[in-house]
Amino acid sequence: MKFLDVHSHKQKSSYDTIVIKNEYPLTAQTDDLFSVGIHPWFLEDWHKQWETLVNVAKHPNCVAIGECGLDKNVSESLELQEIIFEKHIQLSETLKKPLIIHCVKAYSELIALKKKFQPHQIWILHGFNKNQSVAEMLLQKGICLSFGKELLTNEKLQNVFRTIPEGSYFFETDDSDINISEIYKKAQELKGEIKIFTEKLFL
């Protein structure tokens, strides 16, 4: 089985691992599979970033849009964040590429946008570490969840993961140095056979 690391800032693809490297528009490296987006933490020059992003996103190695999204812990207004996030949603639909999402304390707004746009492309919420009720709320709206290193040690999150249906979860290393195989191993301990539908999404 090939491993899929759906969101990483550090790792690289290898003989047994497909890594979707997170890139930022103005510094994007395009020699391997990657996603590209404007993170809600870094919106200062977003107009300039966006012009570049639209071109970079058309590269054949760009297999997803993001990370992008909403974060209520940052100083940028939620209104501006939503404007920029909506542009990512539209680009994801235009280019027919999945959307990788960063969301902090803005799940209601995220779901409202999902309802507004009715996207055909898959939405993947990266770094999911919340409780059962949040997981169910997102899954009911067709939003997939990506689990990272917290799955190794967080027992409450492990219990949540056990309930996630096949085809609705992914795994990631994000900005950690761990190997994605460690997360797969833990997931298999918790759930048994693990299936990630790589082909229909990214290849």
From TrEMBL:
InterPro entries, alphabetically? Metal_Hydrolase, TatD-like
Protein name stated in the entry: Hydrolase TatD
GO terms of molecular function: hydrolase activity, acting on ester bonds; metal ion binding
The record lists a divalent metal cation 2 as bound by: 102, 126
Q: What does the record list as coiled-coil region(s)?
A: none
What keyword terms does UniProt attach to this protein?
Hydrolase, Metal-binding
- Give residues annotated as binding a divalent metal cation 1: 67, 174
- State a GO cellular component annotated for this protein: cytosol
